[in-house]
Structures are given as C-alpha cells and as structure tokens.
Amino acid sequence: MNEAGLRERKKRQTREAIARAALELFAERGYDETTLADIAAAAGVSTRTIFAYFPGKEDILFCDFQALRDTLAGALSERPAGKDALGTLRDFIVSTAAAKTELDSKLARIVASDETLSSHKRARLSQLQELLAAAIADDLGSGPDDLRPQVAAASLAAAFEVLERHDRALPPPHTAEEVAAAVDPIIAFVHAGLQALPAPPRRPA
Amino acid sequence: MNEAGLRERKKRQTREAIARAALELFAERGYDETTLADIAAAAGVSTRTIFAYFPGKEDILFCDFQALRDTLAGALSERPAGKDALGTLRDFIVSTAAAKTELDSKLARIVASDETLSSHKRARLSQLQELLAAAIADDLGSGPDDLRPQVAAASLAAAFEVLERHDRALPPPHTAEEVAAAVDPIIAFVHAGLQALPAPPRRPA
DNA sequence: GCCGACGCGTGCAGTGAATGCAAATTTACT
DNA sequence: AGTAAATTTGCATTCACTGCACGCGTCGGC
Prior knowledge:
The structure is a homodimer of 205-residue chains.
Chain A: H1 6-29, H2 36-43, H3 47-53, H4 57-61, H5 63-77, H6 85-98, H7 102-113, H8 115-140, H9 148-169, H10 176-196
Chain A binds a DNA duplex (30 and 30 nucleotides) through helix 1 and helix 3.
C-alpha cells in the first residue's frame, strides 16, 4: 500500500480542511474579521485543535508559502551545471507566476493591505532569501566571510517585492512574456551589482 | 517662555517615562517577558494610559526609530546640489553608527533574536526605504513609471540589513573608518546595479 | 478669582489570540 | 477484545488591545 495508516490520512485531511476554510474566510471577509472560532466552525473542528496543526493564525494564511519554498529549494539544488542561481530563480518566478489562482491574488491583496501581515510575509520571504544566498555562494565559490551572496540575495528579494507591488496595480492576466520582461532587468541589476562588488573582503592565505 | 503650557510638558514627560521604563525592562528581561502591566507600574501610570501614547507594544520598542527617520529625511532634503542621495545616505550611516549606545545594542540584539520583532523592524525600515526612493528618483529625474529608484532603495535597505547582521557578530566598538569600509562597497554595489538598469521602461513621447 | 469646556488619566468590562492541562475519544497493535 | 498510544477537545488562564464612561486637573473667558 502506498498510504500509511488511517491516522495520517485523517491528519492530512483535517489540516487541509482547516487551511481551506481559513483561506476562503480570509478572502471573503478579511483577516482580522475572521476569528479562529469561525475557522474552527467552518472546518468542523474545535478551536483548540487548530493549534495542533498551525503554530498561529498567520501560519494558516502563509501555509502555501512553505510549499513554494520547497519547490525553489529543489529547483536550486537540482539545477544543471551550466545554469547559475540567478537564471534558475528567473525561470522559477516565470513559471510560478503562471500558476496563480484567483484566490491567491485576493489573499495577496489582503496581505498587502495590512501592515502587520506585510511584515510577516517579508519574514517568510527571507527564508527564500537564505536559500538564494546559499546557491549564489555556491556559484561564486565564496567562503563565509564573503557578504556578496547575502547582499545579492537580499537585493533580489527586495527588488521582487517592489515588482510585486507594482504588478498588483495592473490587471491580473500576466503572460509569461510580460513576467519575463519585468523580471529580467532585476536579474541584470543584481548581476551588475555583483560584479561591481570588489571580491571577498579578506582571503586568509 | 519657549514652552507651551504645563499640559504639554507633562505629556512629553509621561511619554518619555513610559518609553524609558519599557526600553530598560525590555533590555533587562526581554520583550515577551515584559508585560504592559510591568511597564505601566515602572512608569507610574496605568496600563490603559500607555495606549494613549503608543498604538501598541512594539511601537514603544521602536519609538527611537521615528527620530532616526526624521533625521534622514532632513539630511536628504537639505543635501547640497553636488551630493547625490547615495552619498548622503553613506554619511548618514557613518555618523549615526558613531552615536550608538550600549542600550541600543542590547535592544538590537533582542529584536534580532525574535522572528516577529525582526519583521516589524523591517517594516519600519521600509519607511526609510521610501524616503530614499524618493530622493533617488529626484537624482535620476525619473517619472512614476521608473522602478529603478524603488529597486535601488529596496536593495540598499536589504543590503544594510545584511551588514547589520554581520556587524552584530563583531565586538561593538566600531570606528568611523570601519563603518565606512563596510558601507562603501554596498553603495558601489547599488550604484553599479543602477547603471546597469536600462532606463525608464517606457517614456511616452 | 470664578466657571464652564476641554483634555487627560484611569478603571472596568469585554474580545480575540495563544498556552497548559487533563479528560475524553479515536486509532493502532496484539 | 483489550491495552497502549495519539488525537481531539473543553476549560481555565494570560496577555495585548479596545470602547466606554467617570473623575480630575488645566485652560480659556469673564
């Protein structure tokens, strides 16, 4: 059998029920306007049970983010020898931008409208940033004293945040070409900056 | 008299009493371990009164940040014609780094140790980022469609975050030369990236 | 100097998120 | 079945935060 016990299946089921109920309620009436009691009722569990699946309320809102992180991690670690981290990221963004649902956009707008939620999102983004920094460090073959990978990754993350804020103003249907046209200058920006950074500050011989 | 009525003086006094008490308690026993009731008791006011001066608990922790923002805003708006925004920022950072107290470092370490506080700090940082973006846009003479100022400002903010995290590992006494040596490459990084970004995406004739 | 208007501090009651604990229910294994 | 484990749940509690209303001092005009 491919499945583990009934137990695990039910757990996964409950987790998804909570997430789905919460996300729909968030999209429908807003984040602050949705209480954990509402979510629990919609998911058919008790309020207390929610905390057995998610550390807190915001973690439900951002639960899809984790999958995204794993996907990026996979793409970065399995990238072919000829492709650098920046190129891998470029393709990753273009491909994930295509798979954006209506609900995603609605939730993104909710996150953007709230100061607190925006900063929490940035915290998640910094996880991706770390992945990137590691991959770039690998490309550059730099040691722990070299700040260039971290600076480049931070710039990338920040730049894409700007890009997303800009995109939110435009109507949702984004073709792959449009996304690529927006992303490529950012990649070029960081690439140029990277080459301008002198080199590892010190290289103990 | 230079002062307004007794009323305003007392208000300022109360505000500082709250801030001082809170900051010391935070530094002494940690943020989460300090309740609003503790702060109120130490400041000699009621819990309810705190909310008359600060919107929330974190706002007390970051109250000094606002002064910093105003200082930067002043420095940017009053900069001489020959000095660009990047250079102004450079000098601003070098000079403010010198005025760092022991308590500042302690609080910075507390903020850095907590995920939630870190993201809130980043939210404040994005206020500075906006100031910078406006100043850079001014330098470049770019219109609202030009994303370069925002990208550059975001990169700067992100890069300085990396820098600060790196500095935290080292012992506190930073000379102006050391700070400058760390800051200058970042400025160069963004400067190079900025020149690589093609130009305003569209310029409607 | 007196008095009304206003602002400020405060207590009280209540909401919502989050945690610890122990009982109850469900699942797994023999 | 029957026991051991995990899962779910209710209950009590803490803490940040808000609305409301009352009291008290300050500030203005007279």
